[in-house]
Amino acid sequence: MVIAENHDGHVYNWIMFERETIEFVLRAIDFYVSLLGDESRELAEDPDLASLITDDTRRELGLGRDKERANRLRQWIKSKSEESGDSYHVDISMSHGTVRFIKAVSLLYLAKLKTKRNRLASRPNVTTSTLSALDREISRKEELFSSSGVFKNASPVQLLAEYGEAPGAEEAVTPPQPNEEIALLTASRPRPVLVGSIEILDHELRRRCLDLFNQFQEAGQSERNDTVVSEASRILESRLRAVTGCTDGSTGKQLVTLAFNAQKAKLRVSSVPSEQEAAQLLFMGTFGFIRNQVQHKLLGSLPAERTLQILGWIDYLLAVIEQAERVADSP
Fold it and tell me: Which stretches make up the Conserved hypothetical protein CHP02391 domain (predicted)?
């Protein structure tokens, strides 16, 4: 179901931001203002181009208005942050239009950070651990401003500093040369360096999913990560079907009930009834929330880090099945 976006005048009366997020937003606004200033300065320094921009054109472009708006918003956010003292969180009320603007400048700033990261990665003496730390933070911020909280259903406003066309997949993964200038919208999301990634112990899960995952990462096809999760959930369902001896067309959730139902369980993970019930809920949630999403729609925005975390979670559930006591007299 598509959720209708709020109008720009809609006010969120209480939003709790981490202070780190507020500081990132302030840097993003500063970067956007610098882009507006750079463009104005470059036009002013070129008499031939400057002669083409009349006063009417300047008013139409709205560079001055956008810059003033950004500076005013920055000052307001900074004052709210200072009012919170040393608190870990900063509570702010703002309109949906402001949320859209913050999302836009933050994603633009992230594009700049990606180009910087890719330039750094082209140097021969950069450690993998450094790239891993950068990738982790970039991915965390990208996830926050793309699909979390008030930003999830907010479309970014069209910024005056946005320019360039996104390249194809093959071109996008090519790191820029150290002295090469590129348009910000051509910055691809850096391929994560997953140092010390989650160790997958289940042999079938490793063989059927990790190879697929690595193939997508090497090919720059991260939009296909949901295929990996779908395959992992099929392995989990197949394992449940095998241990319960169920040969009919029962769904994953029905298999979970058959396996862990406290009244007539086929698998006992704990002698404590509440723990047995909790285990059933863990499996129910996995099929109902994780598996259903990848089965019924395409999740092109599933980051590589989250994909590995889901694989690790399913690996744990497979271990729970293997370590559970088989109840021989289960009806």
Answer: 215-319
**Residue 289 located in a structural domain:** yes
Answer yes or no: are the C-beta atoms of 82 and 12 closer than 8 Å: no
Tell whether 142 is covered by a domain: yes
Q: How many domains does the chain have?
A: 2
C-alpha distance from residue 275 to each of 128, 253, 283 (Å) = 41, 18, 13
Same-domain pairing of 18 and 160: yes
The Cα-based distances of 244 to 166, 263, 266 in angstroms read: 50, 15, 6
DSSP annotation of 290 reads I
Average pLDDT of the chain? 81
- Rg, the chain, Cα only: 25
Domain membership flag for residue 301: yes
186 near 167, Cβ under 8 Å?
A: yes
Residues 68 and 212 in one domain: no
Q: Could you give the dihedral angle defined by the CA atoms of residues 263, 269, 273 and 275, in that order, rounded to the nearest 10 degrees?
A: -140
Domain final position from 186, 217, 249:
186
- Amino acid in position 69: R
DSSP line for 45-67: H-HHHHTT--HHHHHHHTHHHHH
Note the pLDDT tens digit of each residue in 122-157. 888 888 888 888 888 888 898 889 888 899 889 999
Residues 221 and 174 in one domain: no
Bridge partners of residue 91, in order along the sequence: 16
Q: Tell me which residue range forms the domain holding 91.
A: 11-186
Tell me: the pLDDT tens digits for 243-295?
888 888 888 889 999 999 878 888 989 889 999 999 999 999 999 999 888 87
Residue 1 lies in a domain: no
Same domain, 181 and 62: yes
